Amino acid sequence: MSMNSQGRSTTPSEATPHSDVHTVSGSRGLQQREDLIFETGSTAKTGVDLPAPKGGMDRLGGVTRKQSVGLPGLSEPEAVRHYVRLSQKNYAIDLGLFPLGSCTMKHNPRLNEKVARMPGFADIHPMQPQATVQGALELIDQLATWLKTLTGMPAVAMSPKAGAHGEFCGMMAIRGALMARGEIETRTRVLVPASAHGTNPATAVQCGFKVDEIKADARGRVDMEDLKAKLEDSSDIAGIMLTNPNTCGLFETDIREIADLIHEAGGYFYCDGANFNAIVGRVRPGDLGVDAMHINLHKTFSTPHGGGGPGAGPTVLSEALADYAPVPFVVEEDGVFHLVEQRTDEGSDAFGRLCAFHGQMGMFTRALTYMLSHGADGLKQAAEDAVLNANYIQSRLKSVMTPAFDGYCMHEALFSDAFTAEGIETLDIAKAMIDEGYHPMTMYFPLVVHGAMLIEPTETESKAELDRFCDSMLSIAEKAKAGDESLKGAPYLAPMRRLDETQAARKPELRWSEPDKVAAE
Ligand SMILES: *Cc1c(COP(=O)(O)O)cnc(C)c1O
Predict the structure, then answer these.
(1) Is residue 251 situated within a structural domain?
(2) Is 104 among the domain residues?
(3) C-alpha–C-alpha distance, residues 230 and 237, integer Å
């Protein structure tokens, strides 16, 4: 048994408290039981003590509420505890390693938060006179310069508010260019590889194009033979939407040839840049022949995301598409910054606005802070460390698990379920990870790999943490390989055991009804 410096055992006891341990409180150790807020509070109770409103005139024309709203009343400590207990049931990047792939949830330096909260950035309004927000406009301009430099592209649209929104921006620019060429009626087909993120085909369709799927080859890259076959009659080709590195975590090695083929066919090359974090500082997409690419600031430049929080998807554009960028954008003249809100020049073919204002100021501030605090060399190092960490995981786990493809990966390691015994699925492995204290990896995506398990550690984790994670994964994988039936019951230690996920997705119960009303029905 190993001991820590205090002489306490660091080996978990064999008698781990399993689900059959009964507690009177319903709590499990320091994991507190928590009921719904409606069950905790009572409509008869109130947390505040206000005098009853003075009767006065009815300003609502008789539509004032006659009954109580039925909201639960709680005292302040009850309300605080309710939400703190719920928050403790959440897994978070500030709690442990987040293995989700295609996501890049990583550490967001606290410095970014500090700068984003500075009143000069946080307490301004988009309708303020521009003379009073010169610093904010300069920040947007500087960030734009960094993005153009890192990608080797001449223009950038800053306003898209998510990756998918950036795709929409890029594809609208392509539409604009095709319209100007008088070819929007004929060029209607967009090629999308089978491994693409679901937003790619959705964007193409939203912009009025038809999606034509290209196969993946045995190496997990675009099948060049299939691509060439699809380009044989190229008169209707609008372009391609390709992710690089792709969603299998692999660099598209034929990307230059793909760009040339698409351009020869008269189409444009949209690159999904969600995985830019794997190549920042090493590869400039502009050098690969890309015409448009969104950058998820919330995946590559550290701004927090998830839980529906704000994202930002600035979209860089090539010379061919620059004139079709949306408004507004920032320009500098003699040291004064202003927003161009309307174009009257040649670029008036541009499609207008994507959103009411200029984009996500808070995300811009965090991203530029991250860039300035890392410097160009630090950004490159973050990309290299992310790739190194993913390869470390792939190399350790492949002693039991089956890598989906041969060779090195980029920022994420992808496994198939080929190693599991009959009857054990990817889902069982994911559930067992919860017992080990980890959020499950991305599973069943990309669809081109059977029972896919996609793991992305990013640069955030130390070797010790990666090893701890790999040890847990290998012990679960061994069980999966041996067909250990206990995996089917996992998680054993979570506040909620295995839920009926199909029911939860198809027939969600989102309303609470008072028990006596339910009984009366
Ligand atoms: C995350 C992601 C997107 C979509 O980005 P959002 O900011 O979530 O809209 C698109 N493509 C890929 C490959 C992604 O990983």
Answers:
(1) yes
(2) no
(3) 9
Burial of 424-460, coded b for 16+ CB within 10 Å and e otherwise, reads bbbbbbbbbbbbbebbbbbbbbbebbebbbbbbbbbb
Which residues are registered as beta bridge partners of 243?
272
Is the preceding peptide bond at 446 cis, omega within 30 degrees of 0?
yes
Query: ∠ CA(409), CA(410), CA(412), 5° rounding?
Result: 80
Using the mean position of ligand 1's atoms as its centre, give its distance from the Cα of residue 410 in Å. Answer: 17
What is the Cα gyration radius of the chain? 27
Pocket of ligand 1 (CB under 6 A): 102, 162-164, 197, 199, 243, 247, 272, 274, 296, 311, 313
Pocket test for ligand 1, best of 100, 102, 251 (most atoms within 8 A of CB): 102
167, 246, 250, 272: which to mutate for ligand 1, most atoms within 8 A of CB?
Answer: 272
What is the position in ligand 1's atom list of the atom closest to the CA of 166? Answer: 9
Name the 3-class secondary structure at 487.
Answer: helix
The CA 208 to ligand 1 mean position distance, Å, reads 20
What is d(CA 238, CA 315) in angstroms, rounded to the nearest whole number? 18
Position in ligand 1 atom list of the atom nearest CA 313: 7
Task: Indicate the pTM of the whole model.
Answer: 0.88
Q: Is residue 415 part of a domain?
A: no
C-alpha to C-alpha distance for 227 and 242, rounded to whole angstroms? 12
- Residues of the domain holding 169: 111-371
Handedness of CA 464, 467, 472, 475 (dihedral sign): negative
List, for residues 284-335, the tens digit of each pLDDT value: 999 999 999 999 999 999 887 765 568 899 999 999 999 999 999 999 999 9
The CATH number given to whatever domain includes residue 198 is 3.40.640.10
Structure tokens at 420: 């599991």
Least trusted range by pLDDT, from 40-49, 86-95, 394-403, 498-507: 40-49
| Overall average pLDDT of the 1-23 stretch | 51
Q: Which residue owns the Cα nearest ligand 1 atom 3?
A: 163
* Inside any domain, residue 6: no
Atom of ligand 1 nearest to the CA of 196: 13
Count of domains observed in the chain: 1
Cα of 104 from ligand 1 centre, angstroms: 10
